[in-house]
Design a protein that fits this description.
By secondary structure, the protein is of the alpha/beta class. It is about 35% helix and about 30% strand. It has six helices and nine strands; from the N terminus they run ααβαβαββαβββαββ. The strands form two sheets. Strands 3-2-1-4-5-9-8 form a seven-stranded mixed beta sheet, sandwiched between helices. Strands 6-7 form a two-stranded antiparallel sheet. A hairpin with a 2-residue loop joins strand 6 and strand 7. The longest helix is centred in the N-terminal third of the chain and has 24 residues. The radius of gyration is 16 Å and the shape is globular. The N terminus is likely disordered.
């Protein structure tokens, strides 16, 4: 048991080191997942969070512009979680004084100390598909089930069946709507699934699949 726990800690450290290097060496707008605005995510979040007081967590928010657009729409209870402190510091600098209106968590989502029933909306674009080990996915889903309020919503975007096999030097898992929803189980009722073709800054096209669920 102790050896397994040590291995988990070492894996998290390796993952953190990897992402710190990525964010330290590349400008935000050159990263493959960069979009000026996450239109699909914004549309789903606005459907899920009709009140501007809704508590929203963006997992893997890093250097994403989603927080900028949520603030511009009047949301004021936003948490950004990312394993990379470099990414969080970059976004804080971009936001300036507005960064004080956001809650920031530097942590691995599978092991973060999240408050129970803290969030109305859980959003993740492009973290879940990096969890290639079954135990990582189980830990992730356990976190979602604990942190999202009953009746809250979960938005997870991952590479679709025709998406890439690797991203940023790491293996990924590709999903269709059924297999992605299956990872979460019956506790999460599927409201809608939808696809998106993302055009990377380098000109490539990546297929994404979103599952929009309600916590029962």
């Amino acid at each position: 048991m102790f050896a397994f726990a040590r291995l988990q800690r070492e894996n998290r450290m390796d993952t953190k080191t990897h992402w710190e290097k990525i964010y330290s060496s590349k400008a935000p707008e050159t990263l493959s997942w960069y979009r000026p605005h996450l239109e699909t995510s914004l549309s789903l979040i606005e459907r899920a969070a009709r009140e501007k007081s809704a508590s929203i967590i963006d997992v893997g928010g890093g250097e994403s512009t989603l927080v900028d657009d949520l603030l511009a729409r009047g949301y004021r209870n936003i948490t950004i979680l990312d394993i990379s402190q470099v990414a969080i510091d970059t976004t804080k600098k971009r936001l300036g004084a507005l960064a004080e209106q956001v809650h920031w968590l530097t942590a691995d989502v599978t092991a973060a100390a999240l408050e129970p029933c803290a969030y109305d909306v859980w959003h993740d674009r492009a973290v879940f598909h990096f969890l290639t080990a079954p135990e990582q996915r189980v830990a992730y889903v356990r976190q979602v089930a604990r942190a999202v309020k009953p009746g809250g919503h979960v938005i997870v975007g991952a590479f679709g069946p025709e998406g890439p096999n690797r991203c940023s030097g790491l293996d990924v898992v590709r999903y269709d709507a059924e297999s992605l929803h299956h990872e979460f189980g019956a506790h999460f009722r599927l409201v809608e699934s939808l696809g998106e073709l993302h055009h990377t800054p380098s000109g490539a096209t990546q297929q994404f699949l979103y599952c929009f669920c309600r916590v029962e």
